[in-house]
Amino acid sequence: MSFDDIKDLLTAKFGNEVIVGEERTGLQPALLIQPNRIADVCLELRDNPKTYFDLLNCLSGVDYGVAANRFGVVYQLTSIPYNLHINLKVSVENDRNEYQLPTFPTLSHVYATADWHEREAYDLVGIFFEGHPDLRRILLPDDWEGYPLRKDYVATEYYKGIPIEYPVQAKDTVEKVSYKVAEDKNPKYQEALKRYEQKIVDASVEDMILNMGPQHPSTHGVLRLELITDGEIVKEVIPHVGYLHRCFEKHAESLTYQQTIPFTDRMDYLASMNNAHAWVMGAERMLGIDKDIPKRIEYIRVLVCELNRIASHLIAIGTYGIDIGAFTPFLWCFRDREHIMGMLEWASGSRMLYNYIWVGGLFYDLPVGFEERCREFVDYFKPKMVELNQLLTDNQIFISRTANVGILPLDVAINYGCTGPVLRGSGLRYDLRRVDGYSVYPELDFEVPIGTGKMGTTGDCWDRYKVRVDEIDQSLRIIEQCLDRLQKELKRTPDFDPRAKLPRKLTPKAQDFYLRAEGAKGELGFYFIHDNERSEIPFRVKARGPSYNNLSVVPVISKNVMIADVIAIIGSIDFVLGEVDR
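User: That's the sequence. What structure does it adopt?
Assistant: Structure tokens below.
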């Protein structure tokens, strides 16, 4: 079904008063929807058997600028059964009055994943979603003043409005700090915060409130989980994120596409190559040079990305073992990961944050001897995975702690926007390397592992763990095929220049574009708005981190479990807070 077919279907259902127009600039057309009816349109797209758009990939709040005085929301929807994609846009005029925020209907009753995405748009852009069950700030403190992703946000003032100077100049006299008086807000914007505070007060009367984190090894970073418990039974889990928030999107709107690559490395810092690969592919497609990238460069990109995927999964497996109480697998995984870190450092010059994949090429060709050393690692590592399976995967204690725990049904996983091993652990063979066939993945032979409920129930913690173990085997297959090509028909030559295709200026045509790729933890997406063909800086960038969506499902699968099982559930999700908070 084409874009025009979908438009005709919706127009026949709702009429031109609801489907108010379309945008066909760039590579991805979009439908313009009457704001008050966006939920009805999404319900139709989700439930109609001809379309069945069951996955909300990304939701982006947009400030179109002070002169435009217009705010909008952009939705990227996917139909997994039909492999269809569509962009929907809504917008309203707003005079930036703090007492009357731009308002749209919530989609949280249509797609559960909209819950956290709408909270982020409210937090950073100041867009209110009518009917949202819990519209509180999510990445910033509850009393933060202003909305950082608005175009008129004053970046030289920070928390509590204290003015600062950069660089800081020494002064002889000590000045008294004056706090800016906060503007009055519409009381309805504080209703969700008051409901949450009252819930905690009420729960503390008969139940027990426990804080797990943000400084706790089992939360895998600065994550705070607020547990409402009845003895050892967890009644509710309330995640609190944002402790590592760096406002990546704000930085991306003030730097060129090439300059932003080091910032992408710091999102999922355990799989930096995959982040940069996704960002670079988005820029190259908007520039129209994606078909011009030499094959050797594409195979090197896939090679280093799969090495980084293995390193990321080894972290997940090793730390999961230590969460459950097995210390030896942790040491083994870090020992073998060290070999990968050494090779990637050899290629890029950096240990974790590589800045190796550039728009149009690479920072540098692979060092002489890299392919031979990489093949030695593959031969060394294969038997190590057999030993690891004997030690941990088939261990009866480990199985007892993970099988039939944290069961994530497939429909719930899709509704919450879960992707990667979390989604595949629930039994769906959905991998963007296969579905979208980007880079040279269509030329490579590999399988997509899924959870089968072998030790318990499909979608439990053991299944999610086992998918990552099996993915390591498939990544090794991909690496071997890349090495074969790089050492034969694509072998290095003295005149090969990995920077030959780097554009002198990164100035795409004015367009919107959403690029997604299979990161180590799921669908990593970047939504670009480029509005000035003479500028190398995007107008708006939205980063869709898979860890953000995957973490949002934890409260659903952690109800009525033991406190110890919450640790097992968190570890099975394998999130990284740099990607959650961005």
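Residues 3-163 form a domain with the Beta Polymerase; domain 2 fold (CATH 3.30.460.80).
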